[in-house]
Write the structure tokens for this entry.
Amino acid sequence: DTGVSQDPRHKITKRGQNVTFRCDPISEHNRLYWYRQTLGQGPEFLTYFQNEAQLEKSRLLSDRFSAERPKGSFSTLEIQRTEQGDSAMYLCASSLRVIAGGGEQFFGPGTRLTVL
Amino acid sequence: DAKTTQPNSMESNEEEPVHLPCNHSTISGTDYIHWYRQLPSQGPEYVIHGLTSNVNNRMASLAIAEDRKSSTLILHRATLRDAAVYYCILRDVGNNNDMRFGAGTRLTVKP
């Protein structure tokens, strides 16, 4: 399968614990995005990388959130000291950088986080 | 950011055409109109995008108003597999970064 993959698909944790999610983009894609989606809402942008550089972060990305993309390949999203409000679907997407129109983003299946 | 307005939900009968509207009255000259859809329990998937002219691809057609303040996604023959939430998104030509999703339109297809 050559699509975007995410691991784990589901994560249940207790409040205050740290969690880490992994995203493997499509191999030739140099851009990688993280989104968060709560029930009944559209995805909300969190951050994006071009290769290994994190170029933009949303105000939604509090200090408890950190994302990395070492070597410009896979990416991890870590949430420290989880809160119940962090419960959501975390989506990863990748794309090629294009000049005009915005490149098509390919989304993974998401990681569903439940904080008890 | 330019915003879009879509109906919360729509219904269609199987094998009939579906017209999904989107209003974007504050669109700028450099904004592209993108459509994505999200099937149940999946991440969003790209459907189509355009700037000024109508666009067709294997999935759908995009009709853009002459003043660009609205657009319509057209599914020519809805199938049960088209039941999803459809998102209309504006993306600036100079900003290939994030996409701002609204709540979208939930399409129900009846057999």
About this structure: DSSP finds no helices and nine strands in chain B. The mean pLDDT of chain B is 92. The first strand of chain B starts at residue 9 and ends at 13.
